[in-house]
Every structure is written in structure tokens, then in C-alpha cells.
């Protein structure tokens, strides 16, 4: 080795070492396991900086879409994403999101270059969960899950009934979902096909969730009241660390053996009667149940838990479900269009068991709801069942605290002119 070679050998070796070290430290992000990262915050834009992200000045075509009943692969390819990019996305999302779990109505956004090269994908399963892929400089995808945080607001409102409960609530800007939740709470005590009556009011303390100021969904109803002309019904949400549910002001659970009605929406078309004029036979005869008119295909729910004793066709009942309950009780659900349970099936209270129809002797779509005790028909509205046991003493103090806190929140909003300590009499009157 010449003197010249010896003079430059060491510096060259140092330079080679430094170049190797630099290449390791600047390894592309796609080669590192980044796809398990969870980010919380607000939606991102493509211009945000990521490790090895492409330049922000790339001209992109943005396409928004919604998943239908075809596979995600077919959907993305139909919007211009190349099959190879879809397969690369599938591999890159491993551990973050499985496209086999995609559902109809999921939404997505793709960003394509003029050469139809995918640069970014945002896939949304709901309003709060986003699954994002960004192409890096080496051509691979950097993927991660972002869960957006929602703002919660607790709202108290009073609704006065003029024509219907639904119109009273929706007339103040709320949705039918709030109505359905409210009626579910009192389904053991109130037949909402008889109630409500004009002039009755309801008070509700409930949660609403927003995303960047836009309403997203309802949370829990914390306090619910139905104030009629002669009686007031109250319900308070309480989680006792074993079972969350609704209780009256004395800590007694509202849940009973039977709910009042088998369908959530519709109208009562015929009541229990000893002597009723039959619209088909044109004769007066006993009507052994209550008819609830509803649109064809409306879900029918079991009013109590039990075992299906019969599921099939039976004379004028048409398609019929009979559920056997403890202590000699049976419930009948007639004129169904479709049966969802079989004989011997155990069903829970509130479980969907059939669809409304007009099979058998029926002039229109409805469900004939019938209650029998030891084989004899009785008026379903006469059924009086016992509620569960009150909260144990070791939980009463906590329940009272939650009750008073929620009543105070309701009073502060409904009666702002009198911001004093709420009392039960103030709220329950």
C-alpha cells in the first residue's frame, strides 16, 4: 500500500461507517411497526407531516364513497384504486383493521394521483373511528387507527303533549330515538297506546354527544318523568356496579315480569272485550286480547321471558307464537307475517320473536296480543306483577347522592329562576 493510500484509507472507512449509521437511523417509516399506533384528536388532512410522507403539493383527486353490499375490494377498484394497491392496503392494515369486518354504510375517502396511484385512504366505521393509510416515499403504506373524542352535554327538557308524544319531542328538535328510549324505560308501567293524553308532560335529563359542534348521538337518560293528570311516573338511572338500570325514588327497580306492549310503534286498534263486533264474521263475540296496528314487518317483542310453547299456524290467529312463562302465564302473538323463533326456544324479555302481518282472520296488518293464566284469557292490562327487591342498604347512600345530583341538574336547567337546592318534591311534583 502506497503512502497516498495509507493517508486516505482511514478517512474513507470513517465515511463508510457514518453513511451506514445514517441509513439505519433514517430507515423508512413503513419498515418500522407503526401500524398499531392509536391517535386521538381531530380528523387529519393529507398535508399533515408524517415520517417519510410524500410532498404536500402532489395534485390529488379526492373521491368519497359508501360501502354497499359488495366486498371492499370490488368497491375500491370500481372507484379507481388499482387491485395491487388494494392488496397492499390489506397487508398494511394487518393488526389495525380487517376489511372482512367491513359493513354496509361504512364510508371512505380515497386520494388518487393523476396516474391512479393511491396516496391516502380514510375508512370510517362510524363517526368516531377512522382507519387511515398514507403512502410513504418508498411506496409502502403507513397505517393507523384514530379514535375521535366526543363532547358530552347533559340537557334537561320539558315536553308538553298536544297530539302525540312523538310530535311533542320532535317538535323541539329531538329525534324519535329519544322517544323510543323514553317509552322503553316505562314499558312496564305505561301503555303508550292509551297514553299519552293532551296536556300531559314529560321531563327528561339526558346526555347528548357532539363532534366538533355537530350532534352525533344520544347517551343515557338520567332522569325520566311522565306527569299525567292523576299520576306521575319517575325513573332514575343508577349503576350499582352489578347491574345498571332504572329505579323509582325509593330505589325499587322498574323492571317487572311483563312489559305492557309487544310493539314499539303503532296504534291500538282494538281492546280486550267480553262482547265485540267481529269485522269478518259480522257477529258479536268475545275479543280475548288487544290488537296493535303497525306496518307490515314491524318487529314484535316478547313482553316477558319464557319458553316458546307453539310457533306456527293456528286457525284465525294465522301465524302464531305462544310463550309460556312462570306461574301459569302464557302470552299469544297472532297474525304474524314471519316467525323468528321455534318451539322449545327460550326467549328473553324484549327479544324480537316475529314480524307484524295479517295472516289468519285479519283485515289489516296488526298483532293480536293475548295473555292467559292457567289457560284462561285475561285482560293484559289487568296483569299486576311485583317488581324486584329495593337496593340494599349499603347502596342506598350512593343512590341518594346520584338521585339528588341529577335532580339538582334538572332543576337548575328547568327552573333557572330558583337556583336553590333541589328537593324531591320540587322535581316529583
Q: Could you give a quick summary of the protein structure above?
A:
With 429 residues, the protein is of the alpha+beta class. It has seven helices and 23 strands.
Specify the biggest β-sheet: 10 strands, antiparallel
What is the CATH T-level topology of the largest domain? Nuclear Transport Factor 2, Chain: A
Beta percentage is: 25-35%
Distance between the termini: 105 Å
The radius of gyration computed from the alpha-carbon positions, rounded to a whole number of angstroms, is 31 Å
- Outline the low-pLDDT stretches: 20-55
CATH architectural designation of the largest domain: Roll
Number of strands: 23
Domain unit count: 3
Mean pLDDT over all positions: 82
Q: What is the H-and-E element order?
A: HEEHHEEEEEHHEEEEEEEEEEEEEEEEHH
Helix and strand content put the structural class at alpha+beta
Number of helices: 7
Supply the CATH class of the largest domain.
Answer: Alpha Beta
Structural notes for this entry:
- The model is unreliable at 20-55 (pLDDT under 50).
- Strands 12, 15, 16, 17, 18, 19, 20, 21, 22 and 23 form a ten-stranded antiparallel β-sheet that branches. Strands 1-6-5-4-3-2 form a six-stranded mixed β-sheet. It has a five-stranded antiparallel β-sheet with strand order 7-8-9-10-11, sandwiched between helices.
- It folds into three domains: 29-147, Nuclear Transport Factor 2, Chain: A (Roll), CATH 3.10.450; 150-256 and 386-429, Nuclear Transport Factor 2, Chain: A, CATH 3.10.450.350; 267-382, Glucose Permease (Domain IIA).
- It has helices at 3-25, 72-78, 83-92, 165-170, 176-185, 393-414, 424-428; strands at residues 38-41, 61-66, 107-112, 118-124, 129-135, 141-148, 151-160, 201-211, 214-227, 232-239, 244-247, 267-270, 273-277, 284-287, 290-293, 299-301, 306-313, 319-324, 329-339, 346-347, 352-356, 366-373, 376-378.
- It is built from seven helices and 23 strands.
- It is α+β, with helices and mostly antiparallel strands.
